[in-house]
Every structure is written in structure tokens, then in C-alpha cells.
């Protein structure tokens, strides 16, 4: 059943990119713009979010409404919009093992002379277009208009939360490390990752299906714990040199001086000398390989990797406890368990 849902999602994204030519007359409007969008949307990814959207819906209805899988794509398309803008902010040249959108567009505009804009400028616009496409895709489902309106409000709120999380994360880089708390970091994780990647997709599906508010709230809480664990896992993977493990630039969080759980734990469990070392490295404009090696040694010395793994285990236990109390169809509850285990390679 899980594979069936995934296959429907993957089939739908291919169909959606073909339909762009008819939906938005893309070949007439701007072939270059939509060529880059199509390439970006079709890149390999696990499509975690639309699968959760579908599970959230099917768990209360047992059968798909017309347009469900096109609507489910909306959360993945919005994810792509966020990635485009994130890569500009993080100055990351790689996304899903290929050039990031602004890198692709830098190459595209290189043929023009005396231009006063660059690939990043075009990528901001491209991201905005992808965002609008995501909203359009969401409206595809044939469902009760009141439920659609309620779900759309949830989607818009989540987009606001995500932008707020990005805003706070950037500002957190100005904060002295000794003033950063675990709660500060989890607030950003919840706003920037957990809500839109886990809680929102599940909630959208459930709202569209007509689930009771208390059941939607349980799904949101479940998604928050799952999302926190996922972000810590992502922080751990960022420390792995092989970029192909993530499909993005290795050490991108460190290079961006992000206050992650790993940095927080390593700093708070270091001696004075190592605290100063971490602080001085994160204040640099350009972090080199020696700096990265120094941070990794401190992380190893402070037992930060094991701490992060324990934190993931604890969060997954909390999520599991909530999942047991979810009032959704048992078949789809089991599919949700399988999907969660797959995400975390359990």
C-alpha cells in the first residue's frame, strides 16, 4: 500500500510537469523559466511530504478523492520553492546532487553581456513562481469547499511559520553562543522544518477528509516530534563529507554558522579553550577545511554525536506514543509507521 501511494505521487509529478504547458501556456510565456522549473521539480527525492498528505487523507476516508494526488504534490512544490530561496541564502551550489537553481541560472545568463542581474536574482523570481504553482496544485482536489478553505488557511499559516523560522534562524547567527538555548533551537526547528515537512502535510490531508479538530491536533503534535528528529538527523548528515549522502553541499550548516543542536551541545560541553575555538570559527567569513576538522574533533570529544542520536530516539518515542492514540484507519496507521521507519532507516 505504501508503495502504491508513492507510485501515484511519482506518476503525478511527471504528469504535472507535462501539464504545465497547458495550465500556464509555459512554452509561450517563458520557455527558459519553465524549463528550469521542470528540471528542478523532477529531481530525485523521497517525496516525504506528499506521501504524508495522502496518508492523512486516506486515514480518515479510506479512498482517494479526485485530484488527491495532484493536491498532495502542493507540499512538495512548496518545499521546492523553499529550497530555491534557502540555497541562495546559504550560498549553496548543490541541491539533490545537481546545481542549485541559482547556479543553473548563473550558467544560463553567462551568455549575456553587460547585464545588471545574476542567477540569484532570477532564482528569487523562479522561487516565487514555484510557490504560486504549489497553491494552484493544492486546489486540484475535488472536496467539500469549506474543508478546502480550512486546509488552505492551514497551508498559508504554515508558509508564514516557515518564513518566520528562516528569519529567526538567520538572526540567531548574531546571538552569542552562550545565550543560545535548546528551546531557541527547537523553536526554529519546529517553525522551519517540523511544521511544513511533517505536521502540515498530515494535517492538510486530515482536514480535507473531515477529521475532527482533536484528531488533527494529534497529527500535528506527532508531526512536530517527527520533524524535530528529522532535523537532528539532517544536522548529523551535514557532518558527513560525502555530498551525495545529502545531495547538497557537505558542512553547509557549519559554513553558514547555523546554531544547530550539535553546535549547541558541543559548545556547552567544551572547556574554555574549545569554546573560544568554536566561537572564533563560527565568526569567520570563510570556514576552511582545517576549521571544519577542528569542529569535528570537538564534537567527537564532547560526545555530541551520541547525544544527538539519543535525542532522536527520545523524540521518536514521543511521536510513537502519540501515534498509538491516533484515531485513523488501522491500515493507514500501519502505512504511516512504515513510512516513518523508512524516513529514519529504522
Automatic annotation (TrEMBL):
Coiled-coil stretches: none
Stored InterPro entries: Isoprenoid_synthase_dom_sf, Polyprenyl_synt, Polyprenyl_synt_CS
Recorded GO MF terms: metal ion binding; prenyltransferase activity
Keywords from the named record: Magnesium, Metal-binding, Transferase
PROSITE patterns in alphabetical order: POLYPRENYL_SYNTHASE_1, POLYPRENYL_SYNTHASE_2
One GO BP annotation of this record: isoprenoid biosynthetic process
Pfam families: polyprenyl_synt
Needed co-factor(s): Mg(2+)
Record family assignment: Belongs to the FPP/GGPP synthase family.
Record protein name field: Polyprenyl synthetase family protein
